[in-house]
Design a protein that fits this description.
Helix content is about 50%, strand content about 5%. With about 450 residues, the chain is of the alpha/beta class. It starts with about 25 loop residues before the first helix and ends with a helix. Bound molecules: iron/sulfur cluster (SF4) (2 copies).
Protein backbone atom coordinates (compact mmCIF):
# COMPACT_ATOMS: atom_id res chain seq x y z
CA UNK A 1 0.00 0.00 0.00
CA UNK A 2 2.80 2.45 0.91
CA UNK A 3 4.61 3.45 -2.29
CA UNK A 4 7.57 5.14 -0.65
CA UNK A 5 8.27 4.80 3.02
CA UNK A 6 10.68 7.75 3.13
CA UNK A 7 9.02 10.59 5.04
CA UNK A 8 8.29 13.69 3.00
CA UNK A 9 9.51 12.06 -0.20
CA UNK A 10 8.33 13.90 -3.30
CA UNK A 11 5.44 12.34 -5.19
CA UNK A 12 6.38 10.10 -8.08
CA UNK A 13 6.34 11.76 -11.48
CA UNK A 14 2.87 11.59 -13.07
CA UNK A 15 1.41 10.15 -9.83
CA UNK A 16 -2.19 11.27 -9.29
CA UNK A 17 -2.55 14.18 -6.89
CA UNK A 18 -4.48 12.94 -3.85
CA UNK A 19 -3.63 15.93 -1.66
CA UNK A 20 -7.17 17.39 -1.66
CA UNK A 21 -8.58 14.10 -0.43
CA UNK A 22 -7.23 14.70 3.08
CA UNK A 23 -6.88 17.81 5.23
CA UNK A 24 -3.10 17.79 4.98
CA UNK A 25 -2.45 20.99 6.96
CA UNK A 26 -4.59 19.68 9.86
CA UNK A 27 -2.65 16.40 9.81
CA UNK A 28 0.53 18.38 10.55
CA UNK A 29 -0.92 19.36 13.97
CA UNK A 30 -0.22 15.84 15.26
CA UNK A 31 3.03 15.68 17.23
CA UNK A 32 3.09 11.85 17.34
CA UNK A 33 3.09 11.75 21.14
CA UNK A 34 0.84 8.68 21.21
CA UNK A 35 -1.22 9.87 24.20
CA UNK A 36 -4.38 9.10 22.23
CA UNK A 37 -3.65 5.43 21.65
CA UNK A 38 -5.08 4.04 24.89
CA UNK A 39 -8.22 6.16 24.52
CA UNK A 40 -9.02 4.76 21.09
CA UNK A 41 -11.54 1.89 21.03
CA UNK A 42 -10.38 0.51 17.67
CA UNK A 43 -6.75 0.48 18.82
CA UNK A 44 -7.86 -1.32 21.98
CA UNK A 45 -9.67 -3.89 19.84
CA UNK A 46 -6.83 -4.58 17.40
CA UNK A 47 -3.59 -3.35 18.95
CA UNK A 48 -2.66 -2.09 15.46
CA UNK A 49 -1.04 1.32 15.09
CA UNK A 50 -2.91 1.85 11.82
CA UNK A 51 -6.21 1.56 13.72
CA UNK A 52 -5.20 4.29 16.17
CA UNK A 53 -5.70 8.05 15.81
CA UNK A 54 -1.96 8.60 15.34
CA UNK A 55 -1.78 5.79 12.80
CA UNK A 56 -4.74 7.11 10.83
CA UNK A 57 -3.27 10.60 10.78
CA UNK A 58 0.01 9.10 9.56
CA UNK A 59 -1.89 7.40 6.72
CA UNK A 60 -3.72 10.63 5.83
CA UNK A 61 -0.43 12.51 5.77
CA UNK A 62 1.12 9.89 3.51
CA UNK A 63 -1.80 10.27 1.09
CA UNK A 64 -1.42 14.06 1.21
CA UNK A 65 2.27 13.70 0.35
CA UNK A 66 1.62 11.31 -2.52
CA UNK A 67 3.40 8.40 -0.80
CA UNK A 68 0.27 6.33 -0.39
CA UNK A 69 -2.59 5.50 -2.68
CA UNK A 70 -6.05 5.89 -1.16
CA UNK A 71 -6.74 2.24 -1.95
CA UNK A 72 -9.24 -0.19 -0.46
CA UNK A 73 -7.07 -0.88 2.61
CA UNK A 74 -6.82 2.85 3.31
CA UNK A 75 -10.60 3.21 2.92
CA UNK A 76 -11.23 0.30 5.29
CA UNK A 77 -9.06 1.84 8.00
CA UNK A 78 -10.90 5.16 7.67
CA UNK A 79 -14.27 3.37 7.82
CA UNK A 80 -13.18 1.32 10.86
CA UNK A 81 -12.91 4.52 12.94
CA UNK A 82 -16.02 5.18 15.08
CA UNK A 83 -15.51 8.97 14.91
CA UNK A 84 -16.16 8.85 18.66
CA UNK A 85 -13.61 11.66 19.10
CA UNK A 86 -12.26 10.26 22.36
CA UNK A 87 -8.84 11.00 20.88
CA UNK A 88 -9.67 14.72 20.73
CA UNK A 89 -10.32 14.82 24.47
CA UNK A 90 -6.85 13.56 25.35
CA UNK A 91 -4.83 15.17 22.55
CA UNK A 92 -2.43 17.85 23.86
CA UNK A 93 -1.98 19.33 20.37
CA UNK A 94 -5.67 20.06 19.83
CA UNK A 95 -5.94 17.82 16.77
CA UNK A 96 -9.49 18.04 15.38
CA UNK A 97 -9.72 14.43 14.41
CA UNK A 98 -13.47 14.30 13.76
CA UNK A 99 -13.30 17.09 11.16
CA UNK A 100 -10.25 15.47 9.54
CA UNK A 101 -12.06 12.15 9.27
CA UNK A 102 -15.17 13.73 7.74
CA UNK A 103 -12.96 15.52 5.21
CA UNK A 104 -11.19 12.29 4.30
CA UNK A 105 -14.37 10.23 4.01
CA UNK A 106 -15.90 12.88 1.77
CA UNK A 107 -12.79 12.87 -0.45
CA UNK A 108 -12.77 9.07 -0.55
CA UNK A 109 -16.28 9.01 -2.00
CA UNK A 110 -14.90 10.66 -5.15
CA UNK A 111 -12.32 7.93 -5.75
CA UNK A 112 -13.51 4.69 -4.19
CA UNK A 113 -15.35 2.07 -6.17
CA UNK A 114 -18.44 0.60 -4.55
CA UNK A 115 -20.47 -2.37 -5.74
CA UNK A 116 -23.81 -1.65 -7.38
CA UNK A 117 -25.55 -2.98 -4.26
CA UNK A 118 -23.36 -0.84 -2.00
CA UNK A 119 -24.12 2.29 -4.01
CA UNK A 120 -27.83 1.50 -4.08
CA UNK A 121 -28.05 0.93 -0.31
CA UNK A 122 -26.10 4.10 0.37
CA UNK A 123 -28.36 6.10 -1.93
CA UNK A 124 -31.52 4.61 -0.40
CA UNK A 125 -30.32 5.23 3.15
CA UNK A 126 -28.75 8.66 2.91
CA UNK A 127 -30.59 10.28 0.01
CA UNK A 128 -34.06 8.69 0.04
CA UNK A 129 -34.96 7.58 3.57
CA UNK A 130 -33.24 9.72 6.17
CA UNK A 131 -33.98 13.17 4.68
CA UNK A 132 -37.56 12.36 3.70
CA UNK A 133 -40.21 12.00 6.42
CA UNK A 134 -42.76 10.31 4.16
CA UNK A 135 -40.28 7.71 2.91
CA UNK A 136 -39.06 7.10 6.46
CA UNK A 137 -42.61 6.63 7.71
CA UNK A 138 -43.35 4.17 4.91
CA UNK A 139 -40.19 2.23 5.73
CA UNK A 140 -41.04 2.24 9.45
CA UNK A 141 -44.57 0.94 8.81
CA UNK A 142 -43.24 -1.78 6.48
CA UNK A 143 -40.50 -2.82 8.91
CA UNK A 144 -42.99 -2.99 11.79
CA UNK A 145 -45.29 -5.15 9.71
CA UNK A 146 -42.35 -7.36 8.65
CA UNK A 147 -41.45 -7.81 12.33
CA UNK A 148 -45.02 -8.70 13.19
CA UNK A 149 -45.34 -11.35 10.47
CA UNK A 150 -41.80 -12.61 11.13
CA UNK A 151 -40.09 -11.99 7.77
CA UNK A 152 -37.43 -9.56 9.02
CA UNK A 153 -34.87 -12.39 9.08
CA UNK A 154 -35.44 -12.92 5.35
CA UNK A 155 -34.79 -9.23 4.60
CA UNK A 156 -31.59 -9.37 6.60
CA UNK A 157 -30.42 -12.45 4.67
CA UNK A 158 -31.15 -10.81 1.29
CA UNK A 159 -29.65 -7.39 2.06
CA UNK A 160 -26.74 -8.57 4.23
CA UNK A 161 -25.42 -6.17 6.85
CA UNK A 162 -27.57 -3.30 5.48
CA UNK A 163 -30.37 -4.86 7.53
CA UNK A 164 -29.24 -6.17 10.93
CA UNK A 165 -30.48 -9.53 12.19
CA UNK A 166 -33.90 -9.30 13.93
CA UNK A 167 -32.37 -9.64 17.42
CA UNK A 168 -30.03 -6.68 16.68
CA UNK A 169 -32.84 -4.38 15.56
CA UNK A 170 -34.60 -1.93 17.81
CA UNK A 171 -38.36 -2.47 17.95
CA UNK A 172 -40.39 -0.01 15.90
CA UNK A 173 -43.18 1.45 18.01
CA UNK A 174 -46.77 1.96 16.89
CA UNK A 175 -47.72 4.74 14.50
CA UNK A 176 -49.21 6.74 17.36
CA UNK A 177 -45.90 6.54 19.22
CA UNK A 178 -44.07 7.72 16.09
CA UNK A 179 -45.99 11.00 15.84
CA UNK A 180 -44.06 14.25 15.54
CA UNK A 181 -44.04 16.94 18.20
CA UNK A 182 -46.82 19.53 17.94
CA UNK A 183 -45.55 22.61 16.12
CA UNK A 184 -46.22 24.58 19.33
CA UNK A 185 -46.24 23.29 22.88
CA UNK A 186 -47.43 26.14 25.10
CA UNK A 187 -45.74 26.79 28.41
CA UNK A 188 -47.44 25.58 31.56
CA UNK A 189 -48.15 28.78 33.44
CA UNK A 190 -46.72 32.14 32.41
CA UNK A 191 -44.43 32.01 29.37
CA UNK A 192 -40.92 33.08 30.33
CA UNK A 193 -39.05 32.24 27.12
CA UNK A 194 -39.32 30.37 23.85
CA UNK A 195 -37.12 27.83 22.11
CA UNK A 196 -37.02 25.54 19.09
CA UNK A 197 -36.75 21.83 19.90
CA UNK A 198 -35.29 19.43 17.34
CA UNK A 199 -37.69 16.65 16.34
CA UNK A 200 -35.06 14.96 14.15
CA UNK A 201 -35.36 12.30 11.46
CA UNK A 202 -34.92 8.89 13.15
CA UNK A 203 -35.74 10.11 16.66
CA UNK A 204 -39.53 10.26 16.08
CA UNK A 205 -39.42 6.83 14.43
CA UNK A 206 -37.76 5.03 17.32
CA UNK A 207 -37.97 7.35 20.32
CA UNK A 208 -40.81 9.83 19.83
CA UNK A 209 -41.50 9.48 23.55
CA UNK A 210 -38.12 11.10 24.30
CA UNK A 211 -39.00 14.16 22.22
CA UNK A 212 -42.32 14.43 24.03
CA UNK A 213 -40.62 14.14 27.44
CA UNK A 214 -38.11 16.84 26.41
CA UNK A 215 -40.94 19.18 25.39
CA UNK A 216 -42.96 18.40 28.50
CA UNK A 217 -40.10 19.40 30.81
CA UNK A 218 -39.41 22.61 28.89
CA UNK A 219 -43.10 23.52 29.00
CA UNK A 220 -43.20 22.90 32.77
CA UNK A 221 -40.36 25.43 33.10
CA UNK A 222 -42.41 28.18 31.43
CA UNK A 223 -40.96 27.69 27.95
CA UNK A 224 -42.92 27.84 24.69
CA UNK A 225 -41.57 24.99 22.52
CA UNK A 226 -41.66 25.35 18.74
CA UNK A 227 -41.01 22.40 16.39
CA UNK A 228 -41.48 23.56 12.79
CA UNK A 229 -42.38 20.79 10.32
CA UNK A 230 -39.76 22.05 7.83
CA UNK A 231 -36.96 21.07 10.22
CA UNK A 232 -36.10 17.46 9.39
CA UNK A 233 -32.72 15.75 9.29
CA UNK A 234 -29.70 17.76 10.50
CA UNK A 235 -27.36 15.90 8.12
CA UNK A 236 -25.01 14.44 10.75
CA UNK A 237 -25.20 10.92 9.27
CA UNK A 238 -24.32 12.37 5.86
CA UNK A 239 -21.29 14.32 7.10
CA UNK A 240 -20.20 11.29 9.13
CA UNK A 241 -20.41 9.04 6.06
CA UNK A 242 -18.72 11.32 3.54
CA UNK A 243 -21.82 12.71 1.79
CA UNK A 244 -20.77 16.33 2.17
CA UNK A 245 -22.96 17.87 -0.54
CA UNK A 246 -26.14 16.42 0.99
CA UNK A 247 -24.93 17.46 4.45
CA UNK A 248 -24.57 21.03 3.15
CA UNK A 249 -28.04 20.99 1.59
CA UNK A 250 -29.64 19.71 4.81
CA UNK A 251 -27.75 22.24 6.94
CA UNK A 252 -29.05 25.11 4.82
CA UNK A 253 -32.61 23.76 5.12
CA UNK A 254 -32.26 23.53 8.91
CA UNK A 255 -30.94 27.07 9.18
CA UNK A 256 -33.95 28.34 7.20
CA UNK A 257 -36.42 26.18 9.19
CA UNK A 258 -35.32 27.66 12.50
CA UNK A 259 -35.98 31.25 11.56
CA UNK A 260 -32.81 32.07 9.61
CA UNK A 261 -29.99 34.25 10.84
CA UNK A 262 -32.23 36.91 12.43
CA UNK A 263 -34.06 34.63 14.89
CA UNK A 264 -32.47 34.67 18.36
CA UNK A 265 -34.46 31.76 19.89
CA UNK A 266 -32.21 28.98 21.22
CA UNK A 267 -32.31 25.66 19.36
CA UNK A 268 -32.48 22.89 21.95
CA UNK A 269 -31.38 19.42 20.93
CA UNK A 270 -31.95 16.16 22.83
CA UNK A 271 -29.80 14.05 20.53
CA UNK A 272 -26.09 14.48 21.32
CA UNK A 273 -24.98 13.38 17.84
CA UNK A 274 -27.25 15.88 16.09
CA UNK A 275 -26.38 18.69 18.50
CA UNK A 276 -22.67 18.12 18.06
CA UNK A 277 -23.02 18.29 14.28
CA UNK A 278 -25.31 21.35 14.36
CA UNK A 279 -22.79 23.20 16.54
CA UNK A 280 -20.23 22.54 13.82
CA UNK A 281 -22.23 23.62 10.75
CA UNK A 282 -19.68 26.34 9.85
CA UNK A 283 -17.16 23.58 9.05
CA UNK A 284 -19.35 22.54 6.12
CA UNK A 285 -18.89 25.86 4.32
CA UNK A 286 -16.03 27.95 3.04
CA UNK A 287 -14.99 30.70 5.46
CA UNK A 288 -16.03 34.17 4.33
CA UNK A 289 -19.13 33.04 2.41
CA UNK A 290 -22.72 33.98 3.28
CA UNK A 291 -23.47 30.31 4.05
CA UNK A 292 -20.58 30.23 6.52
CA UNK A 293 -21.83 33.39 8.27
CA UNK A 294 -25.39 32.00 8.50
CA UNK A 295 -24.03 28.71 9.86
CA UNK A 296 -21.98 30.52 12.50
CA UNK A 297 -25.01 32.52 13.69
CA UNK A 298 -27.11 29.34 13.73
CA UNK A 299 -24.58 27.20 15.59
CA UNK A 300 -24.20 29.80 18.32
CA UNK A 301 -27.89 29.21 19.15
CA UNK A 302 -27.63 25.42 19.48
CA UNK A 303 -27.71 23.95 22.99
CA UNK A 304 -27.92 20.42 24.22
CA UNK A 305 -31.14 19.87 26.20
CA UNK A 306 -29.10 19.34 29.38
CA UNK A 307 -27.21 22.61 28.85
CA UNK A 308 -30.48 24.52 28.64
CA UNK A 309 -31.85 22.79 31.75
CA UNK A 310 -28.66 23.11 33.81
CA UNK A 311 -28.80 26.89 33.37
CA UNK A 312 -32.32 26.82 34.90
CA UNK A 313 -31.73 24.34 37.71
CA UNK A 314 -33.66 26.33 40.37
CA UNK A 315 -36.73 26.44 38.14
CA UNK A 316 -36.31 22.74 37.38
CA UNK A 317 -36.12 21.84 41.07
CA UNK A 318 -39.28 23.85 41.74
CA UNK A 319 -41.11 22.04 38.93
CA UNK A 320 -40.02 18.70 40.42
CA UNK A 321 -41.43 19.48 43.86
CA UNK A 322 -39.15 22.18 45.29
CA UNK A 323 -38.49 21.66 48.99
CA UNK A 324 -41.01 18.87 49.37
CA UNK A 325 -39.55 15.54 50.58
CA UNK A 326 -38.24 13.26 47.84
CA UNK A 327 -40.93 11.17 46.14
CA UNK A 328 -39.93 7.50 46.16
CA UNK A 329 -42.30 6.60 43.28
CA UNK A 330 -39.78 7.64 40.59
CA UNK A 331 -37.97 4.28 40.44
CA UNK A 332 -41.26 2.43 40.05
CA UNK A 333 -42.44 4.81 37.32
CA UNK A 334 -39.21 4.27 35.41
CA UNK A 335 -39.20 0.52 35.99
CA UNK A 336 -35.90 0.72 37.90
CA UNK A 337 -36.38 -2.10 40.38
CA UNK A 338 -33.69 -1.24 42.93
CA UNK A 339 -33.68 2.58 42.70
CA UNK A 340 -30.07 2.71 41.45
CA UNK A 341 -29.18 4.57 38.25
CA UNK A 342 -25.99 5.08 36.28
CA UNK A 343 -25.00 7.57 33.57
CA UNK A 344 -23.32 6.71 30.28
CA UNK A 345 -21.97 9.83 28.55
CA UNK A 346 -22.60 9.87 24.78
CA UNK A 347 -19.35 10.47 22.87
CA UNK A 348 -20.83 13.37 20.95
CA UNK A 349 -21.88 15.04 24.18
CA UNK A 350 -18.64 14.69 26.16
CA UNK A 351 -15.97 14.48 23.44
CA UNK A 352 -17.84 16.25 20.63
CA UNK A 353 -19.43 19.11 22.59
CA UNK A 354 -17.35 19.11 25.78
CA UNK A 355 -20.61 18.95 27.78
CA UNK A 356 -19.96 16.92 30.93
CA UNK A 357 -21.14 18.69 34.11
CA UNK A 358 -24.57 19.78 32.86
CA UNK A 359 -26.14 16.35 32.36
CA UNK A 360 -24.88 15.19 35.74
CA UNK A 361 -26.28 18.30 37.46
CA UNK A 362 -29.67 17.75 35.83
CA UNK A 363 -29.68 14.00 36.43
CA UNK A 364 -28.63 14.31 40.08
CA UNK A 365 -31.39 16.87 40.69
CA UNK A 366 -33.93 14.50 39.16
CA UNK A 367 -32.68 11.44 41.04
CA UNK A 368 -32.59 13.37 44.31
CA UNK A 369 -36.18 14.55 43.82
CA UNK A 370 -37.18 10.94 43.18
CA UNK A 371 -35.17 9.41 46.06
CA UNK A 372 -32.91 7.47 43.71
CA UNK A 373 -29.18 6.88 43.87
CA UNK A 374 -26.56 7.33 41.10
CA UNK A 375 -23.50 5.10 40.84
CA UNK A 376 -20.53 5.75 38.55
CA UNK A 377 -20.15 3.67 35.42
CA UNK A 378 -16.51 2.71 34.80
CA UNK A 379 -15.15 4.68 31.80
CA UNK A 380 -18.53 6.22 31.14
CA UNK A 381 -17.03 8.29 28.30
CA UNK A 382 -15.92 5.22 26.31
CA UNK A 383 -17.90 4.50 23.13
CA UNK A 384 -20.72 1.93 23.31
CA UNK A 385 -20.19 1.01 19.64
CA UNK A 386 -23.33 2.63 18.28
CA UNK A 387 -21.63 5.49 16.37
CA UNK A 388 -24.26 6.34 13.76
CA UNK A 389 -24.38 3.52 11.21
CA UNK A 390 -21.29 1.76 12.68
CA UNK A 391 -23.36 -0.87 14.48
CA UNK A 392 -24.62 -1.97 11.04
CA UNK A 393 -21.43 -1.56 8.99
CA UNK A 394 -19.09 -3.03 11.64
CA UNK A 395 -21.42 -5.23 13.69
CA UNK A 396 -18.68 -7.42 15.22
CA UNK A 397 -16.53 -4.54 16.48
CA UNK A 398 -19.62 -2.71 17.67
CA UNK A 399 -20.80 -5.74 19.63
CA UNK A 400 -17.39 -6.29 21.18
CA UNK A 401 -17.35 -2.72 22.46
CA UNK A 402 -20.90 -3.04 23.75
CA UNK A 403 -20.15 -6.31 25.57
CA UNK A 404 -17.40 -4.68 27.58
CA UNK A 405 -19.71 -1.77 28.43
CA UNK A 406 -22.34 -4.29 29.56
CA UNK A 407 -19.76 -5.88 31.89
CA UNK A 408 -19.16 -2.45 33.42
CA UNK A 409 -22.89 -1.84 33.73
CA UNK A 410 -23.33 -5.10 35.65
CA UNK A 411 -20.68 -4.12 38.19
CA UNK A 412 -22.64 -0.95 39.09
CA UNK A 413 -25.69 -2.97 40.12
CA UNK A 414 -27.86 -0.26 38.53
CA UNK A 415 -31.32 -1.03 37.22
CA UNK A 416 -31.54 2.21 35.22
CA UNK A 417 -29.05 3.23 32.53
CA UNK A 418 -29.40 6.90 31.57
CA UNK A 419 -28.00 8.44 28.41
CA UNK A 420 -28.73 11.34 26.05
CA UNK A 421 -28.37 10.14 22.48
CA UNK A 422 -30.85 7.99 20.53
CA UNK A 423 -28.20 5.76 18.91
CA UNK A 424 -26.64 4.96 22.30
CA UNK A 425 -30.06 4.41 23.88
CA UNK A 426 -31.05 1.87 21.21
CA UNK A 427 -27.63 0.18 21.30
CA UNK A 428 -27.86 -0.26 25.08
CA UNK A 429 -31.44 -1.57 24.81
CA UNK A 430 -30.36 -4.20 22.28
CA UNK A 431 -27.37 -5.31 24.38
CA UNK A 432 -29.32 -5.44 27.63
CA UNK A 433 -32.10 -7.46 26.00
CA UNK A 434 -29.60 -9.86 24.46
CA UNK A 435 -27.83 -10.41 27.80
CA UNK A 436 -31.13 -10.75 29.67
CA UNK A 437 -30.44 -8.02 32.24
CA UNK A 438 -33.18 -6.37 34.29
CA UNK A 439 -32.09 -2.86 33.44
CA UNK A 440 -34.26 -0.11 31.96
CA UNK A 441 -32.63 2.34 29.53
CA UNK A 442 -33.89 5.92 29.55
CA UNK A 443 -33.01 9.25 28.03
CA UNK A 444 -32.26 11.84 30.69
CA UNK A 445 -35.38 13.80 29.62
CA UNK A 446 -37.53 10.77 30.46
CA UNK A 447 -36.06 10.65 33.98
CA UNK A 448 -36.77 14.32 34.58
CA UNK A 449 -40.26 14.12 33.04
CA UNK A 450 -41.12 11.15 35.28
CA UNK A 451 -40.66 13.52 38.25
CA UNK A 452 -43.38 15.78 36.89
CA UNK A 453 -46.06 13.09 36.82
S1 LIG B 1 -12.43 8.91 16.67
FE1 LIG B 1 -12.52 7.23 18.18
S2 LIG B 1 -12.17 5.35 16.97
FE2 LIG B 1 -11.57 7.09 15.66
S3 LIG B 1 -9.37 7.32 15.97
FE3 LIG B 1 -10.38 8.71 17.48
S4 LIG B 1 -10.61 7.50 19.36
FE4 LIG B 1 -10.16 6.06 17.66
S1 LIG C 1 -2.57 12.66 21.10
FE1 LIG C 1 -2.82 14.13 19.39
S2 LIG C 1 -0.75 14.79 18.91
FE2 LIG C 1 -0.55 12.95 20.15
S3 LIG C 1 -0.40 11.26 18.64
FE3 LIG C 1 -2.56 11.46 19.20
S4 LIG C 1 -3.44 12.85 17.67
FE4 LIG C 1 -1.20 13.07 17.54
Amino acid sequence: MVKNATPHAPAEANAPDWSALVDYSASLDCIHCGLCLRSCPTYELTGRESSSPRGRIHLMRAVGEGRLEPDAAFGEEMDFCLVCRNCETVCPAGVEFGAMMEHTRSGLEDVRSRSLKGRFLRWIGLRVLVPNRLALELAASSARLAHQVGIMGLASRILGNAVPSPESQPPIPSRRERRLLPQRTESLGPQLEEVYLLDGCLMPVFLGRVNRASAQVLSALGVLVKAPREAGCCGSLHAHNGDRSEAQRLAKAMIAAYGGAGDPAPIVVGSAGCGSHMKEYPGLFEAGTADFAAAEAFSARVLDWTEFLAARLDRLRLAMGGTEPAKPGLAARLGAVNGVATWDAPCHLCHGQGVRDEPLAVLDAALEAGAMERRELHESERCCGSAGTYSMTHADASNELLESKLDDLETTGASLLVTANPGCQLQWEIGIRRRGLTVRVAHIAEVVAANLD
